[in-house]
Amino acid sequence: MTRRDPFSDIEELFERMDRELGKLGAGLDVPASSNVSVDLIETDEELTVLADLPGFDDDEISVELRDETLTVAATPSGAEEDDVDEADDDRYHLRERRHGAISRRIPLPAAVEPDAATAAYDAGVLTVTLPKRSASEESGHRIDVS
Hints:
Elements: H1 6-26, E1 38-42, E2 46-52, E3 61-66, E4 69-74, H2 82-85, E5 102-107, E6 118-122, E7 125-131, H3 135-138
Antiparallel strand pairs: 1-2, 2-7, 3-4, 4-5, 6-7
């Protein structure tokens, strides 16, 4: 009679739960800092967003500006297949590298010119430059009363 190790069964259960929760979390837009690390820098003329997206290609990254909120997202090619490649008998002792889609919404502290925005991706860092709207555009428009 073979004796079962209850601790290995528990370890296997946690590994399966981690994989399944990872699949669920990949489709959610969770603004957790561990999802995408971001720096937001403001000068008098512009806002600059630096986002760490290591391991992605440029065509896997999307950047969208809507309602003064910048959304950065990345989906690796074949993200749905990542967990299929893992053999069921693989046991991770440490798993910190993210697999699957990631995203982050960044509320902007100032109004920007969407048409003048630029984005560049180099060495795993996305740099989005957002020129601010001029003060004359933000002050509004005078309407004469007759």
